[in-house]
Amino acid sequence: MKALQLEKRKFTIGVVAVLVVMIYLVRLLFLQVFSDDYKRYADSNAFLKKIQYPARGLITDRNGRLMVYNEPSYNMMVIMNEQRGIDTLEFCRTIGITRQQYEDRMNDIKNPAKNHGYSRFTPQLFISQIPPKQFAILQEKLYKFKGFYIEKRAVRHYATSVAAHVLGDVGEASPEEIEQDAYYRPGDYIGKLGVEKSYEEDLRGVKGMKIMLRDVHGRIKGHYQNGRFDRVPEPGRTLTLSIDRNLQELGERLMRGKIGSIVAIEPATGEVLCMVSSPTFDPHMLVGADRGENYKQLRRDPHIPLLNRAIMGQYPPGSTFKTSQALTFLQEGIITPQTSYPCYHGFVYGRTRVGCHGHASPTALTYAIQTSCNSYFCWGFYQMIMNKRKYGSYAKAFTRWKDHMVAMGFGYRLGIDLPGEKRGMIPNAEYYDKHYNSRWNALTIISDAIGQGEVSLTPLQIANLCATIANRGHYFVPHVVKKVEGKELAPEFKEAHHTMVDPAYYSMVVNGMRHAVLGGTCKAANLPGLEICGKTGTAENRGHDHSVFMGFAPMNNPRIAVSVYVENGGFGAVYGVPIGALMIEQYLHGGLSEESQVKAEVFSQKTISYGTRKR
């Protein structure tokens, strides 16, 4: 019996011993084969890998004038595995933080939820963008703080305070952005808005690396294998914008105290000459240690200065839209240049009435554009949608109308090289079937004919309409970057997009727009020697009407097409026309006449009261 118990005890002890040995073997296998912790620890002891950040690409205007460049900045990094035995209080006094802030930052660094991909063996960001003066003080004492290192970086600096919405800004990469792109690590900067975001891969360059050899005490002994494995950083590419800085400055000055937008396009290329969104902000606000607080302040502003209204604002285009209607009706054979319609101070059909200002009646096409007659375009729209003999049904007629609008660049994003572009609204037959339970006709939706109702466009789309008319029937996708250093411009910006309208009909609309300047609603744009063609718009609004204008010049071989949208500015002739004329004069003449300079100063001082807006 005792022998049996002894035998069992030996067996139990043997099993336990085998299990212990197996556990040690498995653990050893895991550490040596599957885990790189010890390898990283050994590498960390032997090497210090210093990332060399490239200079971010410069940004200039179309004439080579510098708009964005780099200034030196410094980040403090910490390797947690080496950070021990320092005088924490002296460290906090040196860099100007409290003990609590120090502990909070250390906890954040070690928190995987806040610091994706954390490793105690690799440099982690402790403080970013240390000013040069503070860096000079810190550098003298850095040797006392084992595990802390200085990483030289650069921050963006702006040569001017204009074009904030186009330029965008640079900020620290978020955990989501780091997870999406292996290029970034905590503390890296990435484009957040504007061209800084849309051209991030071109601007950021390629990181370099220095591998430094260390002795057992952690002291740097030089480059590993004499720098054989070092990589030199490649600087980012320079962007040449299509923006004309002088034109942009004038536009922002004219829009002070107003909400709205100015967009100017070179018709022959689609290059955006200026893009003003008002109110705007100084891009310097989103640089440096105060970036976060300034961003919150801008976000809280009830007038939303961060919103790029040129591509995100969706507005009724008002009477500027009548040019697209004239072209559609001509192409569809609904009207000819000689077709006349009556105007009894507006369009009147049964109980449906759309008002109009006083002018001669009946009107033909040129005079209808010149005087911006509502009745003329309502009748054309009515004749098209109600023409069952030609189209088969109201829905099919309206679908044909919608197809024309889409071909002109409405209802969908144009594809500009900026983030956040909105599509506007061109309704379709299904929309009205649902809204009116399939009981609708031309009279139900007659407001569409004059750029009201459910129709909405962005200021960019209005400017693009103007550029299309200037080109007599085609446009290029608008873009704000003229050239990327060492690269071809993206092919989508070189392709001409043709509408469904015969170019011959465009000349008829151009003639009407020229007459609008010579003796119609755009008379304030009749500047000597510029041969401007224009169209006003007064977009109805729940409050005061919006003031709208689009125009191009010269009439033949046009060099600029511009749209102006001033919220609550009243008639198009009040704000839209004079501002648009000043922009055209500035670009074509390279400056303003003395008389126009006085006028520009007057408009820069004019303000519109908007009160407190709800988002």
Can you offer a commentary on this structure?
- The chain is α+β, with helices and mostly antiparallel strands.
- The radius of gyration is 33 Å and the shape is elongated.
- The protein has 22 helices and 20 strands.
- The strands form 6 sheets. Strands 2, 3, 4, 5, 10 and 16 form a 6-stranded mixed beta sheet that branches. Strands 12-11-20-19-18 form a 5-stranded antiparallel beta sheet.
Termini separation (Å)? Answer: 90 Å
CATH class of the largest domain: Alpha Beta
Task: Count up the domains.
Answer: 2
Main beta-sheet annotation: 6 strands, mixed
How would you summarize the topology of this molecule?
Layout: H1 2-34, H2 37-46, E1 47-52, E2 59-60, E3 66-78, H3 88-95, H4 99-110, E4 124-130, H5 132-141, E5 148-158, H6 164-167, E6 170-172, H7 175-180, E7 189-191, H8 194-198, H9 200-204, E8 208-214, E9 220-223, E10 239-241, H10 245-254, E11 260-266, E12 271-278, H11 291-300, H12 309-312, H13 322-331, E13 346-349, E14 352-355, H14 365-371, H15 374-385, H16 388-391, H17 394-407, H18 429-435, H19 459-470, E15 474-476, E16 481-484, E17 496-498, H20 503-519, E18 533-539, E19 546-553, E20 560-566, H21 576-589, H22 594-605
Parallel strand pairs: 2-10
Antiparallel strand pairs: 1-8, 2-3, 3-4, 3-5, 6-7, 8-9, 10-16, 11-12, 11-20, 13-14, 15-17, 18-19, 19-20
List keywords for this structure.
Penicillin-binding protein 2a (Domain 2); Beta-lactamase; five-stranded antiparallel sheet; elongated; alpha+beta; six-stranded mixed sheet; 2 domains
